[in-house]
Structures are given as structure tokens and as C-alpha cells.
Amino acid sequence: MPTLSLVNFNLVSAAFGGFIVVFGLLSHLLKDGFYLGEALIPLLTGVWLSPAAANVIRPLDYAHGEEENLHAITLHFSRLVLCVQLVIVGVHLPSQYLRYNWKSLAWLLGPGMIGMWLSTSLLVWAMVPHLSFLHSLAIGACVTPTDPILSNAIVKGAFADQHIPKDLQLIIISESGANDGLGYPFLFIALYLIKYTGMGGEGQPGGVRLAMAYWFGEMWMYVIVLSVIYGLVVGLLASKLLHWAEDRRLVDRESYQIFAIAQGLFIVGTCGMIGTDEVLASFIAGNAFNFDNRFRTQTIDDSLQHTTDMLLNYAIFAWFGAVCPWSSFAHGGIISIGRLIGLGVLVLLLRRIPIVYALHFQIRQIQGLQQCLITGFFGPIGVSAIFYLSVSLEFLRHVTVEGVVREDAAILAEDIQVVVWFLAMCSIVGHGLSVPLGKLGLKIVGLIRSQRGKVKGSPEPEEFQESQESGIAEPAPISQTHRTRECPDGE
Fold first, then answer.
1. Is 405 helix (H, G, I), strand (E, B) or coil?
2. Burial label, 151 (beta-carbon count in 10 A; 0-12, 13-18, 19+)
3. What's the rounded Cα separation, in Å, for the pair 109 and 115?
4. Which of 54, 83, 365, 443 is the most interior residue, by most CB within 10 Å?
5. CA–centroid distance for 138 within its chain
6. φ/ψ (deg, to 5) at 405
7. What are phi and psi of 15, to 5 degrees?
8. Is 478 left (phi over 0), alpha (psi -120 to 50) or beta?
9. Separation CA 320–CA 317 (nearest Å)
10. Tens digits of per-residue pLDDT, 87-102?
11. Beta carbons of 197 and 211 less than 8 angstroms apart
12. Structural contact between residues 472 and 436, judged by C-beta atoms closer than 8 angstroms
């Protein structure tokens, strides 16, 4: 006799498939009409399906009831999404983009990241009670990298085509791709110092000298330098092999299209095995793979890579909505909800805008105050922050004394989860709504001033007419907007 089988696999498949179907029916209107970020709606769907609401997605069940297993799932899921998407980002940048724009990127990845790290750490230190500055440096490092997935709200789609110059689009997306993998040195200088100097180095002798030796030797030489070399070799070799097979008609069209995605999967696995930085290696590999622009030009009209990118976005943000520790924000006892909200607002406003303003005179792609504010504000916190959070939790779990996690490491593990998760949620919601709210605000201001002009009997100024016209746009036909999803051409 037929019975209702409400097992986890059936529930998740039905819920995720149903969400994609419903969202797909309205996707053009929501993304190109209302300019909603691609992450916001999956996130809210994940919250609705989480154990706190509909109880359809049950993360702890998949982790066999163990928090450590849940953190491991989130870590590896984030690795997978970041690596695949960063290869795609690298491939769709113009040929040799990093070579010709290294000066601008150097300013953003050097002083820019240091400024974001220190400003965020100072804000966390000031707002979270009883937190040491060293611990705040670890928390600030998790949210220093900008997220390439959330950056799509400003660098792709109808809004970008109307308002953001191509040069600026490219520098924002290339920075977000490169700095995702460069978060390791910022995070591990704090973690190594905590491990070897915290509580007098109890259980972990060695002091500052050993911490710095690991940071220079292991972190910079093995993790960062090796990942750059490895990504370069993999990307160039994959390009040569693919073109060799193509010239001899050995590869079919479908296999050709998924080659970049397969590279991302390969790098996730191989870098994971040797313990180097798969995120940075993926971005470098994508750039190296497209060194002659051949793959990019031949797949520019193909939608497979972008469809894969979209499905990964939906899945990861729905997962975040389900696993986020929402209750700890209000009842965690670490920091009050009022301070958390204040911290979230301050981080969105001060984490990036001041340092970008200070540097924008050296970055030729950023012209004028308006572009400076756009670049400064749209440095969102997302998947990379949760990735580095998971890396931190894994590291802190091994800071032990006689087999028990040391007290300072346990306290930091609790603090870092609450603060990083909250800042990520603030950024996803804030950046996801910023464009539609900004457009709506311009339209309202234009309408008010227009009405005042009519009352006074004066002609309506041209600038106000333009602000009304720049409100929520009527979506263009799909055939006209298909190409807006592509990364813009080079210079």
C-alpha cells in the first residue's frame, strides 16, 4: 500500500526544485526589474525552510547531530562553490587582465585589504564586550575579503549596464576574485599568535618566534606562493590540452563548455589533498586558462557556465539561511542585539568606503566621488566570510591542553561564530536591497520635486525627469538581456 515517505532526501529535493521553479518564473522581473540581489531570495527561502520555521531543511540531521560535522559540511560546500565560481570569474575576465591592471589591483589587494582588516577589527573590538584586540583581528580577517557572488548585484545585469562603467565593473570583480584567496595571511597571523602566545602559550609552546615562523614559512611560502604557481600551471596546461584536443576534433561541444567548471572541481580536490589555498589557485587558474582569450570568445554566448553558477548560488545561500545560528544573535549572551545591529551598520559604512576613498586617486578605473562610493560600498561579505569562519573553527578545535580545547580558543570560537554570521547576514540583506531601495528613493525624490514644480507653475527640470525615469525599470525581453549576464569586454 502506498505510504507518504517524508525522508530528508525527498523533502530537500522537492523544496529546492520547487523554489527554483517558482523563482524562475519571476526571475527576470525580480533581478532585472527590481534589481534584487541573487543571494537574498535563496537566503530567505532557506530561513523559511529551516528547523526554526517549516523544518524542511534539517542540517543537524545531515550531520548526524554533531556540530563539528555541520561545520565541516559548510566548509566543504563553501570551498566547492568558491572554487568553481572563481574559475568562471577568471575565465570571463579579458585576456591577461591581471597583467595589464596589476597596479590598480596592487593598491586594492595591499593597502586596501590591510585597511579593511584593521578598520573592521577596530570596530569589532570596540563593539564586542570583553574581546581582546588579537581576537578581534581574527574576526576582522574573516570578513576582509569581498564576495564575488554578491558583487554580481553591481557588476552584472541591467543596473550595471545602465550605471557602472565597464572598467569599474572589471576592477570590482577582479578584486573580489583575487582577495578571496588572500584572506589566509590576515587570518592566520592572528590565529598563530593566539595559539602560541594566548594564555602564555599553555599547551602550545613556542611563542611569537614560532608563530611568525609558521606565518612566513607555511602560510606565505607554502599556502600562498604554491597556490599561485599551481593555479598558473593547471590553467595553462588545461588550456593547451583543450586546444590540442579541439584542433584535432577530439572534444565535443558539451565537454568543451564544462571544461572550466571541471577545472574548479579538480583544484578543490587536489589543493585540498596537499593543503594549499584552493580559492586563490582557482582564480589564477581561470585567468591562465583564458590567456589567449580563445575559450572566452568561443563560449561567450553559452549559458551553461552561468546556469551552473546560478544553481550553486541558490544552493549555498539557501543552506546559509538554514544553518545560520539565528537564535544566538538575540540570546547568545556574547553581545546584545542592539550592539550587533550597530556593529553591522558601522561595518557596512566604515569597513571599506574610507580606505577606497583614500586610494582611489591611485586607481585609474575609479573616476570621481560617485564611483568611489559605489566601489567602496559594494565590497560585500558572503560565502568567503563563512569559508574563513569554518577554517577558523577547524583550527581552534586543535588548540588544546591535555586533549581539551583551551579556554581562550573556546571563547573565540563562540565569539567568531556570532559576529561573522551576523555580519554576513547584514551584508547579504543590505547589499541585496541597496540597489532597489536606492532606485526607489531617487524615484520618490524626483516625484516630490516634480509635484513642487507643478504647484509653482514652473517647468520640470530635466534632471528630475531623468531621476523619475531611472526608477524601477520595466524588464527588457530576455533576448535583449541575455548578454548582460556576461562579464564585460576588456579595454
1. strand
2. buried
3. 10
4. 83
5. 18
6. -60, 130
7. -70, -45
8. alpha
9. 5
10. 999 998 988 898 899 9
11. yes
12. yes
**Which H or E run contains 418?**
helix 407-455
Cα–Cα distance measured from residue 475 to residue 488, given in angstroms and rounded to the nearest whole number: 20
Residue among 109, 146, 141 at smallest CA distance from 124 = 141
Residue 398 burial by Cβ neighbours in a 10 Å radius (0-12, 13-18, 19+):
exposed
Q: Which three cell numbers stand for residue 154?
A: 553591481
Q: Which stretches in the chain have pLDDT values below 50?
A: 460-491
Q: What angle do CA 46, 51, 52 make, to 5 degrees?
A: 90
Q: What amino acid is encoded at 369 in this protein?
A: L
pLDDT at 52: 87
- Single-letter code of the amino acid located at 474: E
pLDDT digits (tens, 9 = 90+) for 363-419: 999 988 989 998 998 889 999 999 999 999 999 999 999 889 999 999 999 999 999
DSSP-based three-state secondary structure for 312: helix
Amino acid letter at 51? P
CA–CA separation, 349 vs 485, rounded Å? 28
- Look at the alpha carbons of 221, 223, 228, 233 in this order and tell me if their dihedral is positive or negative: positive
